[in-house]
Design goal:
Shape: globular
Number of helices: 12
Strand content: 5-15%
Number of strands: 10
CATH class of the largest domain: Alpha Beta
Number of domains: 3
Order of helices and strands: EEEEHEHEHHHHHHHEEEEHHH
CATH architecture of the largest domain: 2-Layer Sandwich
Helix content: 40-55%
Length: about 375
C-alpha cells in the first residue's frame, strides 16, 4: 500500500501460497508493505487473508491510502472488501509487471516492488465491473467452464480410440446408442473401463451445460445491451451475453482501436531509427514498419467471440459486400476474416454506445 504524495502511505500486498509441494492460488496469509511519500518503508507485516484482519490494518493507517495488489483468484473479493476504506485501489495486471521477474522471488520482495511501482505511477489497473452485471458474469463463467469441461472430456474419449488406431469420424462415438459398439473395439479391459468412465462423466456434464446455458440466457434478457448486440449479424444470444458480461460498459473504450487492443485484434508493429538528418533537417524514414502479428496481451474470451463471428459469416448476410470488396482487392481470405472480425467488434462498440439497433444501411463496406 502507498500513501498520497502529501504524507499518506502507499500499500502493496503479496499473497503467500498454502504450504505444500506445489504453490496453490489460494493464500492463507498476505504480506503487506507500506511506503511513505519519500519511499521509505514505514510498515511491513503479515496478515491472515481474512476480511476483518485486512480492514483493521487499513483503518489503522492514517491519511489518504492507495492500495495495489495483482489480479488473481482472490482479487475480486479483496477489491470489494477494502475499496470503501481507501482512496484508491489498483488491481494491477501481473503480465505487465516485468520488474517482479527480476532478481529474487518472494512475497516480501514482490510486495516491496509493487509498492514502488504504485508510488511511481507505473501500474495499470485491471477493470472490475459494476454490480449490475455481476450475476451475468458468474453465469457466463459457469457456462464457459462447463462447456470447456465437456469439450475436454469429448477430446479425451476420441484420444483413447485414436491412440489405438481406431478412426472416430463425426460425433457418432459420443452417441449413447452406439457406445457399446465403440467400447467393444477396445480389447484391453483397463482402457475400456477408462472410456466407460469418461462416457459417464460426459453424461453428467451435458445436462449441466444445457442448464447453465438456459440460466445464462434468461439472465441476459434483463440487460438491454444484449438485445442491442443481438441485432448485429453473427452475434447470437450466447455471444452477446459473453460480450456484455466481459466488457460491462462500452464507455471504457474511447475509440474502436482501444477496443481492438483489448479484444486482441490490434496489430503489433516494431520499428527503430524512424528519423534521420537530411540537409540539417529531421525527416521521417520511409523504411517499412515490420509487423509482429496480433497483440497477445488481450481478453481471450472476446477474441474467440469475434473471430468465430467473422469465420461463420457468409456472403448471404450483411457482411457479404464487405468480404467481397476485400477479396476483389487481392486480400488473402484469412486477412479478410480478421478485418471482418475488427469490423464486427467496432460495430458492436458503436451500437452499444449509441443505444441504437444495428442498421445494415449504415454499414460502411469501404472501411
Amino acid at each position: 500500500m502507498v500513501r498520497d504524495w502529501c504524507s499518506s502511505p502507499w500499500l502493496a500486498a503479496s499473497g503467500r501460497s498454502i504450504a505444500g509441494s506445489r504453490p496453490l492460488y489460494l493464500s492463507h496469509s498476505t504480506h503487506v508493505v507500506v511506503l511513505d511519500a519519500d519511499g521509505r518503508v514505514i510498515l511491513e507485516t503479515m496478515e491472515p487473508t481474512e476480511a476483518a484482519a485486512i480492514i483493521r490494518l487499513v483503518q489503522s493507517l492514517s491519511g489518504p491510502l492507495r492500495v495495489t495488489f495483482e489480479e488473481s483468484t482472490q482479487a475480486a473479493w479483496l477489491y470489494e472488501v477494502i475499496r470503501a476504506y481507501v482512496t484508491e485501489v489498483i488491481v494491477c495486471d501481473p503480465r505487465r509487471n516485468k520488474l517482479l521477474e527480476d532478481g529474487s522471488k518472494a512475497d516480501k520482495v514482490d510486495a516491496l516492488k509493487l509498492a514502488e511501482l504504485l508510488r511511481a505511477g507505473l501500474l495499470r489497473s485491471v477493470y472490475h465491473g459494476h454490480e449490475a452485471t455481476r450475476q451475468l458474469k458468474e453465469l457466463v463463467r459457469a457456462y464457459e467452464t462447463l462447456s470447456n469441461d465437456t469439450l475436454r472430456t469429448m477430446a479425451r474419449i476420441k484420444a483413447i480410440y485414436r491412440g489405438r488406431g481406431i478412426r472416430t469420424p463425426g460425433r457418432g462415438v459420443y452417441q449413447p446408442k452406439q457406445r457399446e459398439q465403440w467400447l467393444q473395439t477396445l480389447t484391453e479391459p483397463g482402457i475400456r473401463q477408462r472410456a466407460a468412465w469418461l462416457y459417464e462423466q460426459l453424461d453428467q456434464l451435458q445436462p449441466l451445460r444445457r442448464k447453465a446455458k438456459q440460466t445464462m440466457l434468461i439472465e441476459s434478457r434483463a440487460h438491454r445491451a444484449v438485445s442491442l448486440l443481438r441485432t448485429i449479424p453473427q452475434l447470437g444470444p450466447v455471444r452477446a451475453a459473453f460480450i456484455v458480461a466481459t466488457v460491462d460498459t462500452p464507455h471504457r473504450f474511447r475509440t474502436k482501436r482501444q477496443f481492438w487492443s483489448y479484444v486482441g485484434l490490434a496489430v503489433v508493429t516494431h520499428m527503430s531509427s524512424e528519423y534521420e538528418m537530411k540537409a540539417g533537417r529531421v525527416v521521417r524514414c520511409r523504411k517499412p514498419i515490420s509487423t509482429r502479428g496480433l497483440n497477445q496481451n488481450c481478453n481471450r474470451r472476446l477474441k474467440a467471440v469475434f473471430i468465430a463471428a467473422a469465420t461463420s459469416a457468409s456472403n448471404r448476410n450483411a457482411y457479404g459486400s464487405f468480404l467481397n470488396k476485400r477479396q476483389e482487392n487481392g486480400m488473402r481470405p484469412e486477412m479478410a476474416r480478421l478485418t471482418l472480425a475488427r469490423k464486427i467488434a467496432a460495430t458492436a462498440l458503436a451500437v452499444w454506445k449509441k443505444g441504437e439497433a444495428f442498421d445494415p444501411k449504415k454499414l460502411n463496406v469501404t472501411t
